[in-house]
């Protein structure tokens, strides 16, 4: 270390650099500094001298500080004196202004110089605020009491002036607006707010006194059929007020709006009273007429006034975007529907009307009349739909109406939309919930009476077809369960149910937008949507059953054929030709009628034929090797047709949906694997069982036994094979439920004989 001293950041002192040497010896270091006792004594003397010098410095510093305090003490006293003097002068000025202002205020009040009083009073009140902490002084307290007395006298005097100018009694208002009253209103702004409120209250009450007389409950014009006269009267009064008194009251008092609002409150009370008295006379048309005129008037108020005087105005919230098609129609001022271009960007609705319901709320207790009327109208509409359907019959095959949505469905939802918009204008509360209940009732009735009630009924085939007739391969020799008209009807009902399902969901969304937020949870049309879903499922099931029934005689013939005695593999069997013929007859009809509901046509294709074919395949027993080869050829032919099922007989070639192709390949491959297992030799048993598990990936012993029945094995042979099958099943993974889970694998078994390979070559050659 080069430096003799180093700074210690920990202790904030200098430390000799020798202390940082690694082999530092403290004893040797002290002996070097103090080699003798005399050196040590000299060090102590030096320390004592150092302490003495430090004490002298400290004493001198204290004396200097005392000297500074003595110098600044006088300066501080002068500063305090200056501050107090300034405050005193300001206070005296305020006191002079207050005293003079109070004198002037009292004099001007006596002379009714309200224009000068308005400005002076505000200044006096502001100055008086500076003396709140001096109220203990008698003179200040006296001035404050004089100000309060002047304010009280002004309030009483102004009220008397208004009473004189606008007497409560008499049919005609005396005098009229004057500059004195206009200035008096400016003074009222400075006085107790209750003075202003009392002036407004009395003026409005006096201004509407004529209305209370003209439209008393016992007057003919008080009834709903003459409700227009009420609104015509207030319009004239507001125009009259603007001309005569518009400049008398300050603009911020919003007197025109206050008169209109008070008129609304009175009208609401009076209408509620007269409707309670004459409730039995209220009819739907009369009620809707009164509501329409009232809501129109409320809309007029919203255009003219801001609603700033309403105490319960809710801040409007921005509307939510919706994909609901019900938004395409809005109601114009004349009650007609305005069509909106769906491609045009939607605009936000105008803010909510703050005056909505200010009068029309009184009609809500009587809206049960409207709800009952809609219940009756919808019931009659459903009955008319039923009678029209019976009279006109189902959609005709080969026409544009075949498979189309029933017109009655659109009529129903158009009427629903009209009712919903109309009711939401009347009320967004409990009446909307009651209307929703009515909607639910007739949605279910439509589904039951028009849709489910008109689905063709299934019936058992009479007679039946012989195997000989099936093998003749004559077109038209087999009869389908439903005729073409019935198939078109099923497709039409399916399409209608799909339309109802989608539109009901949109109806629910729109109802939730219209109803009060507190009631949204009570809007639920899930049950009705499930009803339409059931109609769709039943329709698809009928179509599937029809195709299965048409193919059933051919499949029955397949299962009864003597497959054990087949000697050679030929072309596809006659039953395959019959099945393909039925498919080509029925499927194009169904596809054409379900063109607008492609997904349900695909669902029909998915549910058709394959399960029934495999069930009949298991009934083919016993089967020889050649017979299995023929069945495998037939299965491949059916598989090819089924893969082309969505576009069969169509001029437009369209690729089948991937989901459909996957299901067909999986189902028909299973049938092919069953036949390959049947073709394989059952000896040695272990190899046969392993090949079965590998090809079918089915751990169900019943399926395995059916396969053994197809091979024609005896029961004694089957018992040992079943026991071996159970032993050879792979162990299911830990935690798995149910039976063993087998992975599906389709490689050709090593033990497959040359006849199987020959059959595959034959199939490829035919393709």
From TrEMBL:
Keywords annotated in UniProt: Coiled coil, Endosome, Golgi apparatus, Membrane, Protein transport, Transport
Membrane topology: Peripheral membrane protein
One Pfam family it belongs to: Vps53_N
Annotated compartments: Endosome membrane; Golgi apparatus, trans-Golgi network membrane; Recycling endosome
Region (Disordered): 316-349, 728-757
GO cellular component labels: cytosol; endosome membrane; GARP complex; recycling endosome
Coiled coil: 54-81
Biased composition range(s): Polar residues: 742-751
Ranges of residues in domain Vps53 C-terminal: 629-713
Record-linked InterPro entries: Vps53, Vps53_C, Vps53_C_sf, Vps53_N
Gene Ontology BP annotations: lysosomal transport; protein transport; retrograde transport, endosome to Golgi
Family designation: Belongs to the VPS53 family.
Protein name as catalogued: Vacuolar protein sorting-associated protein 53 homolog
Species this chain originates from: Oncorhynchus mykiss
